[in-house]
Amino acid sequence: MSTATTKTELEGVKLAAPDAERLSALLVGLDRPPRPSALSASLTFGWRAMLKIKHVPEQLFDVTAFPIMLVLMYTYLFGGALAGSTQEYIQFLLPGILVMSVVMITMYTGVSVNTDITKGVFDRFRTLPIWRPAPMVGYLLGDVLRYVLASAVMLTVGMIIGFRPDGGVLGVLAGVALLLVFAFAFSWIWTMFGLLLRTEKSVMGVSMMVIFPLTFLSNVFVDPKTMPGWLQAFVNNSPITHLATAVRELMAGSWPASALAWSLGWAGLIMVVFGAVTMRLYNRK
């Protein structure tokens, strides 16, 4: 039977010979559509993640209202006490709190993964003839949009209240790009927890236990030089400190080679380790 067999011809065969085995043999003889590439499958699942935001716009609260609240609250509560004026403090604070906010919302990747597992959606994904990591990569690609939106919102609010980056547009874009790379890698931690834990509440609880100490014990809010020596040792070697320093200096017009190397190194290490663990759990789920 040629590949040009039409639906009408198949229906005719079915009517003439209703034998199921014969009809199945005819269908198997047809050419199947080509298997989607890894990139195509990943982008498709990324688009699915964005459509979920479209249908549940309340998800955007964490990347709009929450960042605005953080910027305003920390600037006007602590600016005068820590830097003498809010105008001076916002120059130091905004890049750091931008890092903190984007890193914090990465945990929702794990929540989304866990929700789909609970609903049985992943059982369907596993039966599809696609690149196995595509659903996971798709979640992360979809969440990149959330990170971009959060960054845009915070930078806009910062500019309104006095943030003036000496690095100009290129410095800001470079800082945001570095942050997106790190956030993409950091999200693999939460995909692992999304597969490992039973409920989305458990994922959020564990995520908070990791994120809060990691972000607050850093140079996001203050210079580590004011901290006790034992605490400086931890803060100065934290991945969040390296990232905040790199983003801050890029936006200030500098080229922080050491902080950049550390940030990209941490991102690569996190992605390799937790990406491998995530896929192992996914294949065994």
Which key phrases capture this entry?
285 residues; mainly alpha; 13 helices; 76% helix; elongated
3D architecture notes:
The protein is mostly helical and 285 residues long. The protein is 76% helix and 0% strand. It has 13 helices and no strands. The longest helix has 29 residues, at 168-196. It is elongated, with a radius of gyration of 24 Å. The model is unreliable at 1-18 (pLDDT under 50).
Please give a quick description of this structure:
The protein has 285 residues and is mainly α. Helices cover 76% and strands 0% of the residues.
Oligomerization: single chain
Bulk shape: elongated
Question: Quick one: how many beta strands?
Answer: 0
Sheet/helix structural class? mainly alpha
Question: How much helix, percentage-wise, in residues?
Answer: over 70%
Low-confidence stretches: 1-18
Specify the biggest β-sheet: none
User: What pattern of helices and strands is seen along the backbone?
Assistant: HHHHHHHHHHHHH
Number of helices: 13
Mean pLDDT rating: 84
Radius of gyration: 24 Å
- Termini separation comes to 40 Å
